[in-house]
C-alpha cells in the first residue's frame, strides 16, 4: 500500500533522493535531515502504515533485527558508544510524519542526554485502574 501524499512513501520508493545507508525489498534506511546526533538514521518501510498500530506483523518482525544491525554499524563506523531506538505514534507523542519509522540515534559518551524523562510515581489507585482496564482490553482481543 502507498499514500500518494506521503513524503516517506516517495523517499522509500527512491522518487525523492535521500542519503541511503541500506535498502532491501521491504525497507530503506536513510540519514535524518534534522539529526539529534551524528549518524541519526530513519528506517522506513516501503509500504505505507500510519504508525505501529497499522504495521503488518510480517514487517514488524523484520524491523527490529534491522535496527540492531544498523545500530551496530553506526557504532562501528562512527565510534558511537551506544544507540537509542525511538518510535513515535501520534502527534501527541511527537510523530510529525504519519508513515511508520524507527529512529536509530547514535549516542556518544559524555554527549547530550537526548532521550530522557523525569521519573514520576505510580499511585496504588492508578496502578490498579490501569492494570484492570488495559489487561481487560488485551484479553478481549485475544
Ligand atoms: P517523527 O517526529 O515523525 O518521529 O520523525 C520525523 C523525522 O523525520 C524527524 O526527525 C525529521 O528530522 C525527519 N524528516 C522529516 N522530513 C524529512 C525528509 O524529507 N528527509 C529526511 N531524511 N528526514 C526527514
Ligand atoms: Zn507513506
Structural account:
This protein is α+β, with helices and mostly antiparallel strands and 142 residues long. It has a single domain (7-141), classed as HIT family, subunit A (2-Layer Sandwich). The protein has helices at residues 7-13, 57-78, 124-140, and strands spanning 20-23, 27-31, 41-45, 82-86, 102-107. The protein has a five-stranded antiparallel beta sheet with strand order 1-2-3-5-4. Residues 3, 6, 8-9, 48, 99 line the site of zinc ion. Guanosine-5'-monophosphate binds at residues 7, 18, 30-34, 42, 88, 94-97.
Short description:
32% of the residues lie in helices and 18% in strands. The chain is built from three helices and five strands; from the N terminus they run αβββαββα. Strands 1-2-3-5-4 form a five-stranded antiparallel β-sheet.
Amino acid at each position: 500500500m502507498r499514500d500518494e501524499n506521503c513524503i516517506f512513501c516517495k523517499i522509500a520508493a527512491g522518487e525523492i533522493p535521500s542519503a541511503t545507508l541500506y535498502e532491501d525489498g521491504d525497507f530503506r534506511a536513510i540519514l535524518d535531515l534534522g539529526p539529534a546526533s551524528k549518524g541519526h538514521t530513519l528506517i522506513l518501510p516501503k509500504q505505507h502504515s500510519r504508525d505501529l498500530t497499522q504495521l503488518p506483523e510480517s514487517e514488524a518482525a523484520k524491523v527490529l533485527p534491522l535496527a540492531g544491525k544498523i545500530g551496530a554499524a553506526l557504532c562501528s563506523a562512527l565510534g558511537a558508544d551506544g544507540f537509542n531506538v525511538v518510535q513515535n505514534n501520534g502527534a501527541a507523542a511527537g510523530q510529525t510524519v504519519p508513515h511508520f519509522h524507527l529512529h536509530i540515534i547514535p549516542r556518544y559518551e559524555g554527549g547530550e542526554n537526548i532521550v530522557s524523562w523525569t521519573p514520576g510515581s505510580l499511585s496504588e489507585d492508578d496502578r490498579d485502574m490501569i492494570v484492570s482496564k488495559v489487561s481487560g482490553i488485551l484479553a478481549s482481543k485475544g
